[in-house]
Amino acid sequence: MADHVHIRSVDEIDRFRAHLLTFLSGARATVEEAAVEVARQQSWLDLDRRKHWEGEAWRRQRKLEEARQTLFQESIATQRGPASFHQMQVHRAERALDEAQERLKHIRFWSRNFENRSLPMVRQVEQLHTVLTVDMAHAVNFLNQALAALDAYSDRRSFTSPSSSSKPTPETVESSVEPPEGAEDIEPTIEPTTGQATA
Fold this sequence. Notes:
Elements: H1 10-78, H2 84-159, H3 162-166, H4 170-176, E1 189-190, E2 197-198
Antiparallel strand pairs: 1-2
């Protein structure tokens, strides 16, 4: 097994981590905004629209009663058939009341069914939010640890002296020295008086 590795992509890992953090920031904000929007729509149906059309239905009912009362009084005062103007006012008030009641009926229907229809999608959004906030946080932490380990390894390798592993041994030095040309034909002789070898 090799005692070292060749590291070439630390910068790429760091760039990927930076892009991932940017993506997670935007994705979490979008998912959270979607969840808030669902809650806002539910509140809009239950409170704003229902309250509005309940008030409209009550006001238009009062206007219809007033128009009918005016028509009745006009009929008695003139001792004739009701005037076409007052009849038109009654019909207009009736149509307005029918519209308010129809709107209120739709609002009540959607107020009852909105949560049931949106709940499956809301759960999917919540699951996605969990992935983005928990699982992806583990992924970012893993990348941080990987980068720290690679940086530490790179620093350790840089502090290791390359000459220590490649320094020649005495045996290597001796074996690397070649005798001069023709030296193998010369046999050393020993002088009896000095005991030194001469060529």
